[in-house]
């Protein structure tokens, strides 16, 4: 199965009413679960703390600001760059190199913020906004889910 086909499948499952999906083809096993409730299911209120986000294709994702963020509890902006795919996040082009961005850095739309490795392919994550990095919500070499918040920009 090709990478583009997997992305289309993820999108289709995310947009559907399915709560879970599993598939095995040519030695590749794919399993996805969402946080969607089946019709008629009871819904319990979730307290809003400002830290929890719902992932588009996976269950709840907790997104916390980086430790060097000036305001860990209150954010000034709602502009968030999210992971466009599932993979491993890298903050720098190599182990010895400086991170692409840090909290407080000014960024331009299209500037590289990080890399996500998926199926041996390196995918550059570009800023969707002009602004200042308010929070880095992911650690280097951490596995990310589709739609998981990575950066908050003000």
From TrEMBL:
InterPro entries: AcCoA_biotinCC, Biotin_BS, Biotin_Carboxyl_Carrier/Decarb, Biotin_lipoyl, Single_hybrid_motif. GO terms for biological process: fatty acid biosynthetic process. Residues 38-73 are annotated as: Disordered. GO terms for molecular function: acetyl-CoA carboxylase activity. Keywords: Biotin, Fatty acid biosynthesis, Fatty acid metabolism, Ligase, Lipid biosynthesis, Lipid metabolism. It holds the Pfam family Biotin_lipoyl. Pathway: Lipid metabolism; fatty acid biosynthesis. One of its GO terms (cellular component) is acetyl-CoA carboxylase complex. The keyword Magnesium does not apply. Gene3D superfamilies: 2.40.50.100. Residues 78-154 form the Lipoyl-binding domain. Transmembrane segments: none annotated. This protein is a component of the acetyl coenzyme A carboxylase complex; first, biotin carboxylase catalyzes the carboxylation of the carrier protein and then the transcarboxylase transfers the carboxyl group to form malonyl-CoA. This is Biotin carboxyl carrier protein of acetyl-CoA carboxylase.
